[in-house]
Amino acid sequence: MQYIVCNLTGNFGGTQTKGNWSGILKLMHEKVIDFIPHIFSINDERMELMSIDFPMPKDYGVVILGAKKKRNMNDPFKIFKAFSLKIWLLILISFLLYSIINFFTKKFQKNQTNSSITLNLYRFINSLVDVFALFMGKTSEDWSCLNRTQQKQSHHFRSIRILRYSLIIWSISSFILCQLLSVDMVALLLSDQDETIDRFDQLTTHNYIHYHLLTVNHSSSECEFRNKYPYLVHRARSIPYEEMGSIETIRSIIDRNYVLILSGHNAKMLVTAYNHMDLYISKEVHSSLLGTYVIRKDLTSKLKRRLIYIVKMIYYFGINLNIDHKTIYFNVVRKKIRDFRQLDNVEIDRTKELEKIRKTRQSIRVQSRLGSLIQKIFYFYFIGISITFLTFTFELIHFYSKRLLSTEKRIHQLPRQMPSSTTEDDLVGGGGGDDVGDGDEDHDDIDSDDDEIKTIDFVRTKNRNLERI
């Protein structure tokens, strides 16, 4: 395998004019090279020279590369852009659940003394309302109607108190997060909006008519753009390929009203290379052309498969990306050398530029520290939530186990409290004595009847309690 380095100024790309090929495809036409580790767009001219046995849709098309610029934004509804749609739906659902629970608790509050089951459910919903109230930064004040006598009589009120004490970490974390997010909300309301161009049609509107366009000379993206938008050609200016990633082009995009029309692959490469320049890529992508690996058409099928495997390995290991990045830095260094040759004996004071870079780095450090601080507080916040729900679960288990033990103890104590002289015949209605005649015996019978009535009432109360349990 022979590797050939091509000169960018004369051997890049390639088109056919008047029957003669230009650029790097001229070397392929002369059979100097067999393949190029790059994906070229397919057109009628290139089909005569390149193999199209492996066509593929291009994963990138023609896009707009620009820099975010600030403009005044007085829209009062921009606060809704602080959260995504899922977050707003979650907040809405939380408020709806909070309202529904409040509605049911007020219904139970009217009948809170009718039965112990209703009162237990009422207190359970009370704790749920506390949880939802803390989620939204509210406090629940609907439970002051329970007097202290009821609190002393209900031992499971202690579980609700413990639950509220376990929410301290959650409450403190919620307060800190609320303060931090409120600062972000104020900053959002006072900040300017980023001016971006996400569609090609925006270039024809009144707000973006002052923008100028840069295209890469003799590229497929330029041809696609000129065919798609001929009414924007008068605002476009072509630049050589080697100037696509130069500092002057990037500065024109950042400091002046320029945008660059190029392929999506090159746009991603520039955004990665200049990641500190706040560049962006438009959301609208035009990709109506197919692409293929650049392989000479008259090769055998066996050689084509081998070359396809080599090209896939180059893309898999990211070798082409490293080459593209080095090409950009090479163009930057070459441009600087050219400028220094033109500016002999001229001292360049870069103190201001270095100071600007230092301030930018310092602001980045401050933002990263603030982000890490918020992340740590989120950890404490979720730890508080976990402790709260675990405590709540254990308290419920403790309450029901204690209630079950007290019920069993009451059941075992009931037979011991029954009078020893009472029998089943007495409860049914028999048994006083064989003789019924004189006054003393009648008086004894009356006393025994009173005892029987009390015993029957006691047994009925016992059965009622057992049925309730």
UniProtKB/TrEMBL annotation:
PANTHER family: IONOTROPIC RECEPTOR 20A-RELATED, IONOTROPIC RECEPTOR 60A. InterPro entries: Insect_Ionotropic_Sensory_Rcpt (IPR052192). The keyword rRNA-binding does not apply. It is a multi-pass membrane protein. The keyword Membrane applies. It is found in: Cell membrane. It comes from Sarcoptes scabiei. It comes from the Eukaryota. Residues 415-451 are annotated as: Disordered. GO terms for cellular component: plasma membrane. This is Uncharacterized protein. The chain crosses the membrane at residues 79-101, 162-190, 378-400. Keywords: Cell membrane, Glycoprotein, Membrane, Receptor, Transmembrane, Transmembrane helix. Residues 435-451 have a biased composition (Acidic residues).
